[in-house]
Amino acid sequence: MLAHHRIKKLLIANRGEIARRIHRAASGLGIETVLVVSDPDRRSLAAQEAGAVYELGGSTARESYLDQAKVIEAARHTGCDAVHPGYGFLSEDGDFAERAIAAGLTFVGPSPQSIRALGIKTAARESVSRAGVPITPGSEGGKSDQELRAAADAIGYPVIIKAAAGGGGRGMRVVHNGRDMAESLERARAEGLKNFGSESVYLEKFIVEPRHVEVQLFGDTHGNIVHFGTRDCSAQRRHQKLVEEGPAPFLDPETREKIHDAAIRAARSVGYYNAGTAEFLVRGSEFYFLEINTRIQVEHPVTELITGVDLVQLQLRVAMGEKLPMRQEEISFNGHAVELRINAEDVMEGFRPAVGTITEWRRESPVQVREECGYRAGDTIPPFYDSLMSKVIAHGTSRAEALYKLFQFLKGYTVNGVPTTIPFHAWILANRRFQEDGIDIGYVERTFTKEDAEIALALLAVDPAHRGAGFTEKVSGAEGAPDLLLTHEEGGTFLAQRLGADGSATDRLTWRRAASRARALE
User: How confident is the model at residue 463, as a pLDDT?
Assistant: First the structure.
């Protein structure tokens, strides 16, 4: 048990929207803040709002936010007594947590021991398996290529190769037959070495078309652990999340409670405290442990909106030695929340990361949503960090209401200067499969096309007064794309025709996946 103490000045070892979020939470508790910044972030929104700024120097993450010595020196120089790493960067580095504690700082997160135990995926699987948490059939880490090929034959294809020290979708390869194992192992090991400093990999049985469901966990240093319900994060590309929602839809009550229980048991198996997220692959009523992320998640606002709990302030309170202020039976869940990640990515070119200056950022919708931004109009998106610009989160009494609010909000939401994921979000919100049945983690990559993006943007521009079959409307195309003639036909199918320079229709694109559900969102 950690002694109760007061954090007076907090070093925020991150950037962008999460740095702003931590500052707000700390300020609400009367805690001073100091923000570390790289050279490109010296004039950022987060730097403007922080109580004080300490310049780390450098542009790349390795030169700045990942330099442990610089971050610890920043805390010492500015008189901070605690450090919050946010997510990414140093947040899941057990060595950094230990180094911060050795320097006399309160580390806002779990213990270094828990971070290490859960950071090596093979060790985490062994630990939670002993606690009775379901895991996929797989191999141990540290095996040779020959041993892994034998393990794949025993498990049965398809299998997935994973970097043992990895996360975030890096160092992963799905292998469907023995012929591809050698090349896939070589690539996975190379990615693991590049991203995590280790070429150790292991195998798991690849679950075909699962959903990605996670549980928000919280523990204190007095042995109490609770959950704050589920989230679904199945809308992904390249193993990176694009849409998150909670509670996870399309789960029967019995399976939901079993997942809650498994998450708690997994956390207890390593003596976990502070914020964490247990992730599972779910197919029907079967589910398998994936990992525990030992930090606050990007998608934590989803849980905050359905529970009314400020999770970042709770992180700070637990770090100060306080007991959790609620028991499990006192946590209530209200309505449904959905989050869209607005990334600087060109969805017309396979979600290619984009850089450049934001020339315009308008929000003209009367719909009330929560938005957390790391940038503003006039800012330049640098090439050195991830592509997240903003998070848009809507809450409704039902899932349908939350989806409706987001679609209406996007109608008046404009970002120019850099391509964004807005066209994708318009498509997924109007997608019948997503609305009615839910999707699996591979659905977006199997299904989403450039044409879908063009027509989804056209749907956002359609006059909502048109509701009957047979209406036709000319709509401006996405940047760099032709204008469209959009017609709503009988049976709920949208017919889109590209228009040439002379205004004549050049070809036909029938968007069958949205069907009449898209009209319902107008």
Answer: 59
Q: Helices in 88-212 by DSSP H: which ranges?
A: 94-102, 112-119, 121-130, 145-155, 181-196
The full DSSP string for 437-474 is: T---TTHHHHH--HHHHHHHHHHHHS-TT--STT-EEE
64-119 pLDDT per residue, tens = 999 999 999 999 999 999 999 999 999 999 999 999 999 999 999 999 999 999 98
Q: Find out whether 282 and 214 touch, Cβ atoms under 8 Å.
A: no
User: What are the backbone dihedrals phi and psi of residue 159, each rounded to the nearest 5 degrees, phi first?
Assistant: -125, 165
Residue 118 DSSP SS3: helix
Residues 6+ apart with CB under 8 A from 158: 174, 175, 176, 205, 206, 208
Q: Where are the domains of the chain?
A: 9-108, 138-205, 211-429
Among the residue ranges 52-56, 402-406, 411-415, 458-462, the one predicted with the least confidence is 458-462
State how far the Cα of 84 lies from the Cα of 331, in Å rounded to an integer.
25
* Average pLDDT over all residues of the chain: 90
What's the gap between Cα 416 and its chain centre? 23
Which of 212-226, 258-272, 401-415 has the weakest average pLDDT?
401-415
Give 39: exposed, middle or buried? Use CB within 10 Å, 0-12, 13-18, 19+: middle
At position 395, the amino acid (one-letter code) is H
Question: Do the strands 9-12 and 82-84 form a parallel or antiparallel pair, or are they unpaired?
Answer: parallel
Fold match between 138-205 and 211-429?
no
Chain segment 406-419, per-residue pLDDT in tens: 988 998 999 999 99
Token pair of 520 as six digits: 């319902």
Percent of the chain at pLDDT above 90? 74
Q: Under CATH, domain 138-205 is a member of which superfamily? A: ATP-grasp fold, A domain (3.30.1490.20)
Q: Does domain 9-108 have CATH number 3.10.105.10?
A: no
Q: How big is the chain by its Cα radius of gyration, in Å?
A: 23
- β-strand pairing of 82-84 with 106-107: parallel
Cα separations (Å) of 154 from 146, 184, 197, 204, 357?
13, 18, 29, 11, 52
Q: What's the rounded Cα separation, in Å, for the pair 30 and 362?
A: 33
Taking a C-beta distance cutoff of 8 angstroms, is the pair 87, 64 a contact?
Answer: no
Beta partners for 243?
Answer: 235, 340
164 with 157: CB under 8 angstroms? no
3-state secondary structure of 287: strand
Has residue 478 got a pLDDT over 90? no
Could you write out the DSSP letters of every residue in 33-50?
EEEEE-GGGTTSHHHHHS
Paired residues of 68 in beta bridges: none
Whether 509 contacts 498, CB under 8 Å: yes
Contacts of 4 (CB under 8 A, 6+ apart): 320, 321, 322
Active site residues: 295
CATH code linked to domain 211-429: 3.30.470.20
- Cβ atoms within 10 A of the Cβ of 513, count? 20
